[in-house]
Write a structure and sequence with these properties.
18% helix; 1 helix; 3 strands; 61% strand; elongated
Length: 66
């Protein structure tokens, strides 16, 4: 039996929601080991002068506690 824990992480990117998700996982993996999955909980974007300038994600990252 595995014990799993979930943390919530916010991240942003000027490229895409996918890039923001990758950044969230990359940053979390610096201090959290054994990451098993990421769930994109929410997506949003900042708009300036009619153009999307920043993509934002709120993700839940699941990792195994050993």
């Amino acid at each position: 039996m595995a014990i799993l824990k979930v943390i919530e992480v916010l991240a942003n990117s000027d490229k895409s929601w996918e890039d923001a998700t990758k950044k969230a996982v990359s940053q979390a993996s610096k201090s959290v080991k054994n990451i098993r999955s990421v769930y994109v909980n929410e997506q949003s974007a900042m708009v300036d002068d009619g153009e999307v300038k920043e993509f934002r994600v709120n993700v839940k990252i699941t990792f195994e506690v050993k």
